[in-house]
Design brief:
4 strands; 86 residues; single chain; alpha+beta; two-stranded antiparallel sheet; 3 helices
């Protein structure tokens, strides 16, 4: 799987290689933006998401190894907020 297509809120369609919306993850992305728009500092967002047990995108490599799924940190939130896809 190409990591370029692995962003929170989207999955890679195995039939055509297109990005398709992952509804559960997309709702989480919307919540992160809502927290930010309400003026919640990024570090507080990170703490809130950690309490909720949210993790970054997780997938399985072509050779069957799990990858990702780590706790979200400030850099993940800043990258999410700056990503033009959203």
């Amino acid at each position: 799987m190409d990591r370029g297509h692995l962003i929170l809120g989207y999955d890679l369609d195995p039939r055509g290689g297109r990005s398709i919306v992952n509804a559960e993850e997309a709702e989480r992305v919307r919540e992160v933006f809502q927290f930010y728009l309400e003026g919640t500092p990024v570090l507080d967002i990170v703490r809130r998401l950690d309490r909720l047990g949210w993790r970054n995108k997780q997938w399985t490599t072509r050779d069957g190894k799990p990858y990702g799924g780590s706790p979200l940190c400030r850099c993940h939130i800043y990258n999410l907020l700056a990503n033009i896809v959203y």
